[in-house]
Design brief:
Largest sheet of chain A: 8 strands, antiparallel
Oligomer: homodimer
Strand order of the largest sheet of chain A: 14-11-13-12-18-19-16-21
Shape of chain A: globular
Bound molecules: flavin-adenine dinucleotide
Helix content of chain A: 25-40%
Number of strands of chain A: 21
InterPro entries (chains A, B): FAD-bd_PCMH, FAD-bd_PCMH-like_sf, FAD-bd_PCMH_sub2, Oxid_FAD_bind_N
Protein name (chains A, B): FAD-binding oxidoreductase
CATH superfamily of one domain in chain A: FAD-linked oxidase, cap domain/gating helix
Distance between the termini of chain A: 13 Å
GO molecular function (chains A, B): D-lactate dehydrogenase (cytochrome) activity; D-lactate dehydrogenase (NAD+) activity; FAD binding
Largest interface: A-B, 49 and 49 residues
CATH class of one domain in chain A: Alpha Beta
Structural class of chain A: alpha+beta
Chain lengths: ~450, ~450
């Protein structure tokens, strides 16, 4: 099969919108431009590359039948289609490189059913909205990005990787963290395919390049009564070792272990009373029932608990919104020249490579860690804040890490394989060849496809 | 302080019982002999050593006040006191070496309160009885021995180590798996001491040598809808590798991963239809919501699911009662000459030492593994079945393991430090010196104390 390039430049968009009948469409250029963007500007590289990209028409279907209708219209007219959830991705995943239709799925947001440990949802359901329905039954989504309040489940699966909860359940890619998908194809006659079991990996984290997800079956975790705690330490490595030990403490139920070297805590305006100058801070979400043993562990490491909020107390800022990429957001609010890295350190309870990197880069790369579970082991992921100078220096920093065994998921590219994956996923590529023969879906994002069509 | 030896041989037991007023006592020798024993006979060594040991009087208090009264009488008369729960220990922990009072706590069995993730219980509460109260609220005890239906929580804490659930929450000794204890002392004026936080370790797993536990605050885990599954494999090492991978699969919620080399499955009479000849078997308890991804993992390892029971289906044998030391029980029912080992293998996802041991001993040491979490890592514990020949050969087998880095918790001794601990616990010893100055509690079980009194 020879993938074809789309030829949509001559499209009459008003006629196209009319063709879609009752389906909601948006043609207002300001709105369309807004709905063509995400948080790509966290990266100075992507900012330059993607600033002028925009779609032509936003379409907002309410049902799978409407999605099928849009798919049919796009195929018939050979029009590119880029799916959009809340548009909170960091790598320009949702930005259309070749214009065309932005398929906004936020109106397809039903929670269809909840069983013990499982839920069936539509892709546009916001993560926090899912929890609002499942929590009273004792369940919650297993992991969430810090954009939890706005992000959609479809966008999280198609464009995210993990987050708050990953210290218990690993990452989205791990077997068991996604049960089933319904996907609308862009074949000559678009149809719905159901994927279950390992087959979901064909579409999981594919940036919407090979199918429109219209329904998801996701596993749920037990909803513990979560408490939020801030612990501070004189030095960063002690804070990190505390994080590593807490993650490995089988008797203490943690959901978030987020470590911040000074001066990162100084960027968290709303938390200042709990963040003494010069101290490294650890932001935690743990089961309220585990606060007592947590206190003993803090004592063992010589830390200080500076803030504690019980599960019933909803006053104040949600601590999760200072972690994961919200850390970057707060830092950039203070200093917009900052950018970031995404690093997975190898499993090592002694954290030797982390320590070396910390000392090597000093103030140029400020350490921000999120602990997570990788194949059963507790490992720190770095979302370090980088004082950006030039693209060349950024590459140098990345290479320095990679040469020493730290894995970098480059957040400065919008191409799937150049980010976290590193190599072409044959399964995803083959699935694209089947369901998107004309290469209309989010064109320019899957390297394997582009190379095949060269 | 010089510990004293008790001198109770001249006690008039009828008068002693009368002194206790309304508190229930048992003097019938057959009953007393029965209530002086546990499952020590799993070990041919302990069987010889402990067969003739018996208490003089069983006392069964209903309240902490009654416990204090018994403590007072024992101290006044310098009478040894051995606490007893259900008497299901395997090492003769509950067998009085110097006679005296058997303090049976099974009548103190209230569940005092349940909060999300925590419960407060009396020591004589049976583990299954606690779950019956907490489960409807979404919670359950985190880990349980396979004697779950009969064993008491006091006996589990004082004499056990872990079990079904340890693959999630680690062992009882891990920080966070025991929150608080109330303990009655055997001082001149017995009193109640409350221990919280790390201080509980002074009494945790001390075989009732340094205080009578009268109340416990224990953490609870989330009650998933547990399903039971049997998977069989052509060869034992594939079964073991499957177990290791399942334990490390962060997206699949497991509660029990129990691996049995052939011919062990042949000892499980009630499960024969699901256990084909010559196959190694893996007995599993996993969240019902995870059966689908589990099926994919089984496929990857070339296993066969031969039985599956949903959470709502209570027909048939509870699978847990073929695991942990119930494996030994079933094997000994068929061949009473069998005994067992308790081995903790070092953390190694490749299972190299396990493989070496498996091939080295062949049929003399049959492999039975229980996977558990140790400091965050998934590790197999061996409860190998040993074809017993002589005590010398048993020692040789143990030394062969230890010399190669496998840790043996010797189940052929009733002395605390000679079993799993290996060294005197200074904290427990100091606590004993304080609360049991006359050395009346379960005498002969704590080596540190005996050496101090030589
Ligand atoms: C401050 C901040 C913090 C963040 N923290 C995290 C974090 O902790 N962890 C994390 O993983 N990410 C994080 N992100 C990235 C992002 O917020 C999440 O991945 C989020 O889940 C994306 O959801 P969305 O609805 O915004 O998706 P979008 O940005 O709208 O889409 C993401 C990708 O998925 C595709 N897509 C969306 N819906 C569908 C569908 N139904 N079918 C097929 N393809 C689809 C889009 O085309 C796009 O390629 C963060 C971002 C920011 C700005
Ligand atoms: C078939 C079989 C399977 C088993 N499987 C496991 C297993 O998976 N994991 C495991 O850990 N164990 C296991 N065991 C051992 C034992 O069943 C458990 O440890 C059980 O929890 C002990 O509880 P019990 O009430 O029977 O205690 P008992 O045997 O009555 O007492 C155990 C010890 O605790 C002391 N004690 C009891 N109550 C108190 C108290 N209130 N205060 C102070 N001291 C006290 C006793 O003096 C004794 O030293 C198994 C045993 C058998 C026979």
């Amino acid at each position: 099969m020879t993938p074809q390039t789309s030829t949509h430049t001559a499209i009459n968009w008003d006629a196209f919108a009319t063709e879609l009948g009752d389906i909601e469409t948006i043609r207002d250029p300001i709105q369309v431009a807004k709905l063509s963007k995400d948080y790509y500007y966290f990266s100075p590289i992507l900012k330059t590359a993607l600033d002028d990209k925009t779609g032509d028409l936003v379409v907002r279907p309410k049902t799978e039948a409407e999605v099928l209708q849009v798919a049919r219209a796009c195929v018939a007219n050979r029009v590119p289609l880029t799916v959009r959830g809340a548009g909170t991705g960091n790598y320009g995943q949702a930005i259309p490189l070749e214009g065309g239709v932005i398929l906004d799925l936020t109106a397809m947001n039903a929670v269809k059913w909840v069983k013990p440990g499982l839920a069936c949802v539509e892709p546009g359901a916001r993560l926090a909205a899912i929890d609002r329905i499942t929590r009273p039954q004792g369940w919650e989504i297993r992991m969430a990005p810090s954009t939890y309040r706005t992000a959609t489940i479809g966008g999280f699966i198609a464009g995210g990787s993990g987050g708050i909860g990953s210290v218990r359940y690993g990452q989205l890619r791990d077997r068991g963290n996604l049960h089933a998908l319904r996907v609308v194809t862009l074949e000559d006659e678009p149809r719905v395919i159901e994927l279950r079991g390992d087959a979901v990996q064909q579409v999981n984290h594919a940036y919407g390049t090979n199918g429109i997800i219209t329904e998801l079956e996701i596993p749920l975790g037990a909803a513990y009564p979560w408490a939020e705690v801030i612990v501070t330490f004189e030095d960063f490595m002690t804070a990190s070792r505390f994080g590593q030990r807490l993650g490995s403490s089988d008797g203490i139920i943690s959901k978030l272990i987020s470590v911040h070297a000074w001066p990162i805590p100084s960027y968290f305006a709303a938390l200042q009373t709990a963040l003494p100058a010069e101290q490294s801070a650890v932001l935690l979400i743990v089961s309220e029932s585990c606060l007592e043993p947590l206190g003993e562990l803090v004592k063992e490491f010589g830390g200080t608990i500076t803030a504690e909020k019980g599960a019933a107390d909803s006053k104040g800022s949600a601590l999760g919104e200072f972690t994961w990429n919200h850390t970057t957001l707060h830092a950039r609010n203070v200093d917009p020249s900052l950018t970031y890295l995404q690093t997975l350190f190898p499993y090592d309870p002694e954290l030797k490579l982390l320590e070396e990197m910390y000392h090597h880069f000093g103030n140029e790369v400020m350490m921000h860690l999120e602990f997570l579970r990788v194949q059963g082991n507790i490992v720190p992921a770095g979302l370090q804040l980088v004082r950006f100078s030039t693209p060349e220096r950024l590459d140098e920093i990345i290479r320095y890490h990679e040469d020493r065994g730290a894995f970098i998921a480059n957040p400065h590219t919008c191409i799937l394989e150049d980010g976290g994956r590193k190599r072409v996923d044959r399964g995803q590529l083959a699935f694209k060849a089947k369901v998107d023969p004309y290469g209309l879906m989010n064109p320019g994002k899957m390297r394997g496809w582009m190379e095949g069509s060269e």
